[in-house]
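ERR on first pass: missing label on line 2. Operator R.T. fixed the label and resubmitted. Corrected input:
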Amino acid sequence: MVVEVDIASLSTGDSPRTSGVDPEHVEALAVAQDPLPPITVHRSTGRVIDGLHRLRAAEIRGQRKITVQYFDGDAADAFVLAVESNVTHGLPLTTADRKHAAARIIASHPQWSDRVIASVSGIAPGTVAEIRRRAQGGRPAEESRIGHDGRVRPLNGNEGRRVASQLISENPHLSLRQIARVAAISPETVRDVRNRMRRGEDPLPRRGRQAGHDEPRPPRTAAGALRPYPTANPPRTVRRS
DNA sequence: AACGGGGAGGCAGGCTGTAG
DNA sequence: CTACAGCCTGCCTCCCCGTT
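pass 2 clean. output:
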């Protein structure tokens, strides 16, 4: 719902745009004849989330009121909305602003996946991962992340795999789902554990076994494909359609 | 330096077949 | 019809390479 409010009642702090407003952009908006689209304001604080340039343009035009769309939510979510709005339209944020914003979102929403934060802040997922690594400074990460689909995915399922492999050894006739429930992992993960055991492999994946202290990956061929490992460890069939 | 693209491997939850 | 089983789908992180 759009309402008209007094410009004097609004505050403008905590913008993701660290360099402030662009005077040329404000001027361009001010001289345009079109009515300014509504700005977005955090209801509980009166802080402008999206529309600083429009607000300044309205002031130059001599307006005392401006049309506003209110946002209900906490300050952290308001900042996320501010970043998202400034990335998707209007005057784009600088790369530095985007990275700064991503760091703040990592701090306020640590459970969000790199891709979710990347899509909000307008930088690459790899850059988000790098910012997260630096921010954590060696501290252990949270145990799981929430993705675009809203699903929670663990970062390290080793403990569940260990439990599953033990159960499979002791009770080979248990179903995947029975084991999955006890080990608190998905049936698909249990199946992978079982398949690895049937092939005589370690039930823990290579990445998980090393827990971040990776042995070097095999070098890629000129075509970009991974060379197979010298020992029998065939790549898992990736189902894609 | 930053990013896009692509491959590999891993995961949760939905889907579908089947037995009782 | 219901419960259970395994398979499928789509998303994840990590990594590397080429491009901008």
